[in-house]
Automatic annotation (TrEMBL):
Keywords: Hydrolase. It comes from the Bacteria. GO terms for molecular function: fatty acyl-CoA hydrolase activity. This is Thioesterase domain-containing protein. InterPro entries: ACOT13, HotDog_dom_sf, PAAI_dom, Thioestr_dom. Pfam families: 4HBT (PF03061). Residues 61-134 form the Thioesterase domain. It comes from Dialister succinatiphilus YIT 11850. PANTHER family: ACYL-COENZYME A THIOESTERASE 13, THIOESTERASE SUPERFAMILY MEMBER-RELATED. Belongs to the thioesterase PaaI family.
Length: 156
């Protein structure tokens, strides 16, 4: 459990930096995929990934769907943290609409549609460099703990 004696952050920039610091420790996001957290707002996040054809392509030379799913799953964790929740994925649906060219930067924007005490529902959209919709995502997350220093609601 998180320490309940931690002082809650109030400044939006401090909250954003704190969330970035939390995810710097995530070896999967940081070291392997190099997922970048572009924007953080309360209940809404944008992340991006510069794809690497040597790491992220399948045997046909296309971006592997698992890489896109990992990017989608990563955005849901960061989005949940933006409202102080530590979560695990219960269910995620991803509609693949198109792929991106290997080497492109992919961007995912998300927002919370339900912020309950035990579950969070997140909708997200994935775009290529030309702003073409690549995928839409719907995820249900189970709250397993709280980042007590991050308020459930904050402006910014």
């Amino acid at each position: 459990m998180m320490d309940t004696n931690i002082k809650q952050l109030k400044d939006p920039e401090e909250i954003r930096q704190h969330i970035r610091n939390i995810y710097k420790k995530n070896r999967f996001m940081e070291d392997y995929f190099h997922i970048h957290i572009d924007e953080i707002h309360c209940g809404s996040v944008t992340v991006s990934l510069k794809t690497d054809p040597l790491k992220h392509n399948n045997h046909r030379g296309r971006l592997h769907g698992g890489v896109l799913a990992a990017l989608a799953d990563s955005v849901t964790g960061v989005t949940s943290a933006s409202v102080g929740a530590s979560v695990v994925t219960v269910a995620m649906t991803m509609n693949f609409i198109r792929t991106a060219k290997p080497g492109e930067t992919i961007r995912v924007t998300s927002h919370i549609t339900h912020n309950g005490h035990s579950t969070i529902v997140i909708e997200a959209d994935m775009f290529d460099e030309e702003d073409h919709l690549m995928s839409n995502i719907l995820a249900t997350m189970m709250v397993v703990d709280r980042f007590t220093e991050i308020p459930r609601r904050w402006n910014g």
